[in-house]
Amino acid sequence: MKAAVYYDIGDIRYEEVDKPAIGFGEVLVKMEACGLCGTDIHKMLHKTVDTPVVLGHEAVGKIVEVGDGVEKFKVGDRVFFAHHVPCFTCEYCIREKYTLCNQFKETNIHPGGFSEYIRVPRLNVENTMHIIPESLSYMEATLIEPLSCCLYGLKKLNIRYGDKVLIMGAGQVGALFCQLVKSLGVGEVFVSDISDYKLEKIKDFGVSGTINVFEENIVDSINKLTNNKGVNIAIVAAGVPSLLKDAINCVDRGGQVLVFSPFNSETLMEIDGDKFFNDEISVIGSYSSTPYEYDIGMNMIANKEIDGNKMITHVLKLSELEKALNMSTDIDENSMKIIIEP
């Protein structure tokens, strides 16, 4: 079978790889669509993974083989599945910190979603696999996983009716967060980015104001928009280290900052520590998603509470993954969400 294999920065090869064989409790899925995620982009730009490797985890497809012991699914089912599974019994899982579970990152699909066929292990089948409603296209279904990540992040925040929210990043994650917080009844939603195209496109989701950080100082802009109060919540939805410092300076006293993007490990920045004590602000991290969000996310997209089609700007072939990566990082390419098809 064919796969897009990541070897090094600037070196992605569309090549022949072994088609995976399945065992007890497993299924083989023909990939029909896989979203290009911000974490995939981060891994390929900074080579934070061992190579060669097939990345991609926002994958959906059709079951073509079913292993012994599988009872809930059959050949022909259109399915969503996640790549990581917690153990549900360790000290982290008991505290509902499922993504910190030692088993979580040890589990994975094989190979990644940027391949023609994917072996879904037993634990993933049992705990994360869902049949996609017929009303939901494969392309829309690729948004189940990132939406579930956003839902998991929002669980950690104390969002109140009428809150002012700043979303830093107008890409896929920013668009999903925008729709989610609006559904919770927040007051004003502001979005920042460096792309005029994305900032214009995200207006489709009812934002109160946009800020191009190439042209405006974000802290000054937020102060102006909020009568020098700041926002109640800032969500860092882009992997730019300086955004953390900006987010802390944009929130009001008692405000919350959700860190939702990876930064380079060598990143250093100065942060005003007095804001934690005197202003009682909170900085909260959120990584990935858990099995408790997938059915909620899937139903929200199927019920059109989340508009996925407005977010998808490009659909490319598996052989064009490197082109997709370059498009996603080029401000002049005018992309928001890129989907990979076989």
TrEMBL record:
* The protein, known as: Alcohol dehydrogenase catalytic domain-containing protein
Supply the alphabetized keyword list. Answer: Metal-binding, Oxidoreductase, Zinc
Domain Enoyl reductase (ER) residues, every copy: 10-340
Q: Does the keyword Transmembrane helix apply?
A: no
Family to which the UniProt record says this protein belongs: Belongs to the zinc-containing alcohol dehydrogenase family.
Q: Which PROSITE patterns match?
A: ADH_ZINC (PS00059)
Cofactor(s), names only, from the UniProt record: Zn(2+)
Organism, by scientific name, is: Anaerosalibacter massiliensis
The molecular function terms in GO held by this entry are: oxidoreductase activity; zinc ion binding
